[in-house]
Amino acid sequence: MPDALVVVESPAKAKTINKFLGKNYRVLACMGHVRDLPTKELGIDIEEGFKPRYQTIRGKGKILSQLRSAAKSASKVYLATDPDREGEAIAWHVAHAIGKNASDIGRVQFNEITERAVIEAFEHAAEIDLRKVNAQQARRVLDRLVGYKVSPVLWKTIRSGLSAGRVQSVALRLICEREEEIKAFVAEEYWTVDTKLQGSEGDSFKAGLIRTKGEKLKVGNGEEAERIVAELKELGRAEGYRITKVTKREQRRNPSPPFITSTLQQEASRRLRFTARKTMMIAQQLYEGIDLDGESTGLITYMRTDSTRMAPEAVAAARTYIRERFGADYVPERPKAYRTKKGAQDAHEAIRPTALNHTLDSIKVHLTSDQARLYRLIWDRFIACQMKPAVYDQTRIDITAGEFELRATGSVLKFAGFTALYIEGKDDEEEDGEARLPASLKDGDLLKFLDIITEQHFTKPPPRYSEATLVKELESQAIGRPSTYAQIISTIQDRDYVVRDRGRFTPTELGSTVNQILVQAFPDLFNVAFTARMEDDLDRVERGGSEWVDVIEEFYQSFSKDLNRVESQRAELKRSLQEDTGELCEKCGEKLVIKWGRNGKFVACTGFPECRNTRPLDEEQALAPSGEKCEKCGSDMVVRSGRHGRFLACSAYPDCKNTRPLALGVPCPRNDCEGQIVERVSKRRKTFYGCDTFPKCDFATWDRPLKQDCPVCGGPYLAERSSRRSQNQDPTLACLKCGHSVPQEAVSDEVAS
Question: Quick one: 62 and 97 in the same domain?
């Protein structure tokens, strides 16, 4: 009969630690949070010191009954939830729900799910840390106040059903402001001039023009470039290119620190194309335990951390591994330690493998493809951080030609160091490395002119945020905490405030409008500085430097004033969204404006409510002829737009109200199905294509079908597919029957011929 009850969050974690504790312990999973604020009301008594009113989460009643029953027969209850604020709050809520005396409850925490770490944690069981609980409670109350008080402002000014979030709205603001920068950006023309030169031993290389008459050179147009080219060619004929200085130096490149949550999300996005949510989901699986030959084993340390600290025994094991695999030359004289950034909580170690005997090759058969890829990334980064720097011989060659100065730079890898194992990924906007230069070049050498290359360029706007760069920006601005980045990014996408196109975030029209209202109404609340300051306040609560109620009280005093001000300006806010069409109402003569409604934008008369004339915003497009006839009255069918996307409607409306889905003239590819492919819209208002006999036939695809025969199997149509990884990659056409895929131009050529 078990003597003690252990409560964790998930069955996977329960299974892993159960084998370490023995038969005297019973391990049960609470499946995450068991209590929370009510879903359909504020749930906070503002007049009573912002007292939250918690209730059992729907569906968790049966779990709590099981925990209470198990706790009654146990002499001791151990709460082994995750070692962070969220985990501490879950432990606190479970303790309250099971009704056990505080003296009979122990809080255990471990950074890795290994036998040594788990046993040691149970030997040093402590009390629930109420400072962490209060910090999390303050965050929950703060977010609830903002969400429930600000969201109605959006309902009344834009449309119902919208929501605002304290942190997510700031992330949305970053994306919207970046989009405004891109729209306001004016490209400037410039030209680069590179010469191809040859040394005395016949090796050629490129040198770029950098200065003339001692001043930095900027070539702004083609005419200026042509003039410079003519002069450089003339100097080439006169053998006027000479090396003035060759500078050689040794450059060391140090390895990156081990992963913390934010850098893991960034690197997984760059290298593996994982979303932040997917990265954290897979990391959670690796942390909680993978079944290795019948034993569930935790493979990595806790994945929500902002610390680069590593256990000494783990560092020693890494140094031994490096010596055995790469040789003693790759092991630094002293173990490498990395400084944790200022303001970090530093509660846990960096993310690393729990045991180096679990090499990827030895356990790969037990992992999914995605688990293996993420585990390798964590493994390589941890080992590399304890290796010697990479060493390069860097060369810079300064050249003169008349009044012009040119420069060539290059580097040669002298010692691989950590790059023998791991090279950090780059964001798209980062430039590649330098070229290799001939080793024989020296001061005073005359160079032979071979050729000149000019290239026209235009300055580029700042790039849109990718998941990696958005997480990097959130971290640098102290917006949110490691455990919140994935949720922030998921939320603004789920709300249809932003879309991710080819890996980059773009605000939707709805998202831009929401941001406009929030910034206009609450300029001090939804900004980077305020959000970062609130994170500091929450950290201070956790350290015991502030009471959580005082932090909320201070916030609410100014927040309530803002709410009152916004309520008095609601009509003005709503008018700020209206756009003048320059047209007059055909019914009453008043101005027509563009307004927001529950189904999006529409055109309405300013004479409302006396005049209720409205029409769809895209009326001209909505009434586009379809070339088809109404089967009920014989009138022309036209293409209209509604809340569920485009559809066919009778032009005789309202006398004839016949409608039908917009068909593409493409038959359904399913065998024995006589349906046609029609255009539809998902719940998130994204266009997809499916069979018009649904639900009899459930065929659906995101790829737009085109009425072109497959050049391989003769299938009735091809589907247009676009690459989500590269903005420059052309769409391809693929047959959904045989899977054959070819570039769109190739199919067009075949069809034309």
Answer: yes
Q: How many CA atoms lie within 13 A of 338 on its CB side?
A: 24
Please state, in angstroms and rounded to a whole number, the distance separating the CA atoms of residues 270 and 450.
39
Supply the CATH number for residue 335's domain. 1.10.290.10
What pTM, to 2 d.p., does this model score? 0.74
Query: Does residue 638 belong to any structural domain of this protein?
Result: no
Q: At residue 747, does pLDDT exceed 50? A: no
Q: Can you give the length of the chain in residues?
A: 753
Task: Quick: pLDDT tens for 58-95.
Answer: 889 999 999 999 999 888 999 999 888 889 999 999 99
Indicate left, alpha or beta for 110 from its phi (over 0: left) and psi (-120 to 50: alpha): beta
Domain boundaries, position 303: 261-384
Is there a catalytic annotation at residue 375? no
Q: Indicate whether 751 pLDDT > 50.
A: no
Exactly one of 302, 422, 465, 497 is catalytic; which is it?
Answer: 302
Tell me the chain's radius of gyration from C-alpha atoms.
Answer: 32
Task: Note whether 33 and 10 are within 8 A (CB).
Answer: no
Who's near 243: CB < 8 A, 6+ residues apart?
Answer: 397, 398, 399, 441, 442, 443, 444, 445, 447
Amino acid identity, position 728: N
Reading phi first (left if > 0) and then psi (alpha if -120 to 50, else beta), residue 285 is in alpha
Supply 254's token pair: 């140090």
Sequence-separated contacts (24+) of 670-674 with Cβ below 8 Å:
670/697, 670/699, 673/697, 673/699
